[in-house]
Amino acid sequence: MASTSFNNNNTSEGNSTARPPLFSRTNYSYWKNKMRIWIRSQDVRIWKVIENGNHIPAKTTSAKEGEVSVSKQVPKGEDEYNDDDWKKVAMNDKAINFIHCALNEHDYMKISTCETAKEIWDKLQITYEGTDHVKESKMKRALKKLLKDSPRSSTI
């Protein structure tokens, strides 16, 4: 009977619908796009939690301020959550799990203290792409280099 060997290196990338794409630290933009598509294919609501932040169940309270009744939203206590609240809160946990499953140990250590999926996603983005200011500076440098290195055309 022939033995089958399992090579862990062959499982890092592919078109699996069961596993998120593994981030190899070499091409963040490529991974970010694949991860976005993979998460949306699992449940678009999970992607919305990453994009917009986690759901915090709230209730409306009324208070009198003088002669006027004022309503405001305040967070619910966990003992006040209904089934729909729990489902929405669980989306953040699912999103965190999806991202954790896609990271190696080194990158996991960078985000291990983050409490929300949005916080993790934003931290990875800043780590590997920089802030908008950094991205703009990189583009300006690349454009300057391109203009400097390109041969100037002369007109006759």
User: Mean pLDDT, as a whole number?
Assistant: 84
Report low-confidence residues grouped into runs of 5 or more.
3-12
Shape call:
extended
- Helix fraction, binned, reads 40-55%
Neighbour order of strands in the largest sheet: 1-2
Measured on Cα atoms, how large is the radius of gyration?
23 Å
Biggest β-sheet description = 2 strands, antiparallel
Structural class by sheet pairing and helices: mainly alpha
Number of strands: 2
Number of helices: 6
Number of domains: 1
Straight-line distance between termini? 78 Å
Give the ordered list of helices and strands.
Answer: HHEEHHHH
Q: Roughly what fraction of the amino acids lie in strands? A: 5-15%
Oligomeric composition of the shown chains? single chain
Organism: Arachis hypogaea
Protein name: DUF4219 domain-containing protein
Pfam family, one: Retrotran_gag_2
Region (Disordered): 61-81
Give the gist of this structure.
The chain is mainly α and about 160 residues long. It has one domain (about 20-130).
Explain how this protein is built.
It comes from Arachis hypogaea. This is DUF4219 domain-containing protein. Pfam families: Retrotran_gag_2. The chain has 156 residues and is mainly α. It has one domain (20-132). Helices cover 52% and strands 10% of the residues. The chain has helices at residues 28-42, 44-52, 83-101, 105-111, 117-129, 132-149; strands at 58-65, 68-75. Strands 1-2 form a two-stranded antiparallel sheet. The N and C termini lie far apart (78 Å).
